Amino acid sequence: MAEREHKRVAVIGSGFGGLGSGVRLRREGVTDFVILERADAVGGTWRDNDYPGCACDVPSHLYSFSFAPNAGWPRTFSGQPHIRDYLERVTDAFGLRPHLRFDSEVQQARWNPEAAHWELRTASGELTADVLISAAGPLSDPKIPDIPGLADFPGRVFHSSRWDHDFDLDGKRVAMVGTGASAIQIVPSIQPRAGRLTVVQRTPPWVMPRMDRGVNAVEKWLHGTIPATHQARRGLLWLIREFQVGAFVKRPQLMKATEQIAKSHLRRAIKDPALRAELTPDYTIGCKRILLSNDYYPALAQPNTEVVTSALTEVRGSTIVTADGTEREVDAIVFGTGFHVQDMPIGDRVVGADGRTLAEHWKDGMAALRGITVDGFPNLLLVIGPNTGLGNSSMILMIESTLNYIADYLRTLDRTGAAALDARPQAVRSWNEALQRRMGRTVWNSGGCTSWYLDAAGRNTTAWPGTTAEFRRATRQVRLAEYDVLRTSVPEEAGV
């Protein structure tokens, strides 16, 4: 068999998780690695989501790597172009370009138990790696519902994360399906241009004011000249969000005060009582993701906008039909219907020690030890794995904690002389049973809604029921007792 290229580490994806992995590997002295990216540029979700109005709902000064502070954010909540530019600059500043391999979608990654390494088949060729880091991310692959007649729709159809920039919206009849985080940014951005905008809403979101403003020159100068001021600002933003966690995970009744702010925000923007009633959620705020916008409600109140409070059930030619029988002729259908979070496509492509895919292993629900490793999948490390999502703070904090764990994982391999570590099934079960016990009283589980945080069985396999500081403590180092230590059975000189 011809010898294939071999790497110490292969990383899937070049978003925040993949690039952060590359930086941390280099800092650990590991330079024999490759970052496999299916697209032709870095950025991950911030490359793919370039729809009108796309911006972050986490404050800019908390939405960056601690090792790559950015004193030049233009706004307190920055837009997609600025975040993507930040990731390009991180790529260059930390020397990651030589490690990047574009147009290299991973088609399959299979663990070879005899050789104790991963065998990868990509769109650009094959390779092997001792360690596989999956930073594909849960918000990577768009989900479009299977709607009867959609395939025969004569107009344009696209998902928010695959925006059709060639389509001229001016004067067109547009249906926006979904009212989640992307939709509330898209609607006010396209409403002035559309001839008629139909917003198809199954469940209204809770919307809070967005405290966004430009960052002035004095602030930028101060943060750039005296880094401690930027660190203090970041620290304060972090601390505020840490204090909020208690209401989300222990005492959802405390969310009532926040609900009153959201209701007041709605009353100020929507004067029509009937429309206001349609836009008022009937579940506890925080059960679904809390959204931030100052212009979403005003856009819904415009004469050319209509809110249909029923799910899309059928498409007949150029007519969309909702469950309540409403029919509307449209020229384009835009889906803001989320992503494959509980059934990430990468799961079908990763094959473990027993020949089963990760998706098959997770058929009863996603589960990972400390959100990072999975039993039966040696030397597979997940960035933003199960139960590492946040409802109120920056995912970059969770990513950096995961990177700490990955660094210690590699050090543990070197220290023990192990070819691989395999999470023990009991360790995975114990970790996740404890998580699920804590989940019962969280707002995500008890708030009276159905959300993408929950799987088909109603288990919350997405969110982290604690503070970011707690997760950092939990992932500070590898506990060898939670793993089986594997040795290779193939002599090194045998090759592959």
TrEMBL record:
One Pfam family, short name: FMO-like
Ranges in coiled-coil conformation: none
UniProt-listed Gene3D superfamilies: FAD/NAD(P)-binding domain
Keywords: FAD, Flavoprotein, Oxidoreductase
TM annotation in the entry: none
SUPFAM superfamilies: FAD/NAD(P)-binding domain (SSF51905)
Oxidoreductase keyword on record: yes
Family, similarity comment: Belongs to the FAD-binding monooxygenase family.
This protein's name: NAD(P)/FAD-dependent oxidoreductase
